[in-house]
Design a protein that fits this description.
The model has no long low-confidence stretch (mean pLDDT 96). It contains 4 helices and no strands. The protein is globular. By secondary structure, the protein is an all-alpha fold. The protein has a single domain, classed as Orthogonal Bundle (Non-ribosomal Peptide Synthetase Peptidyl Carrier Protein, Chain A), CATH 1.10.1200. The protein is 54% helix and 0% strand.
């Protein structure tokens, strides 16, 4: 899968997992921190759990350690690069 396609799919997954129906994948910048106000997603710790489960279910990658999650799931760019490196 191409990296741009992966980024789009990750955005779709985050929107679905976190029930953010008022946001489209195009609304999410690849280089903006997902858990910041700038992202417009208004994500919280429950959303982090949902995203972690989505990554595990869709990509077979388990991010059980909160430190790993915070290091990897910062931006769409970093998350996509990490997923590609694990394949």
């Amino acid at each position: 899968m191409e990296i741009e396609e992966l980024k789009y799919k990750l955005k779709e997954m985050i929107i679905q997992e976190c029930e953010k129906e008022d946001i489209t994948p195009d609304d999410i910048a690849n280089d903006v921190e997902l858990f910041s106000k700038k992202s417009g997603l208004e994500l919280d710790s429950l959303d982090a759990l949902q995203i972690s489960m989505g990554i595990q279910n869709n990509y077979g990658i388990r991010l059980a350690d909160p430190k790993d999650f915070r290091r990897i799931v910062t931006t769409i760019d970093k998350l996509a690069s990490y997923i590609q490196s694990q394949k």
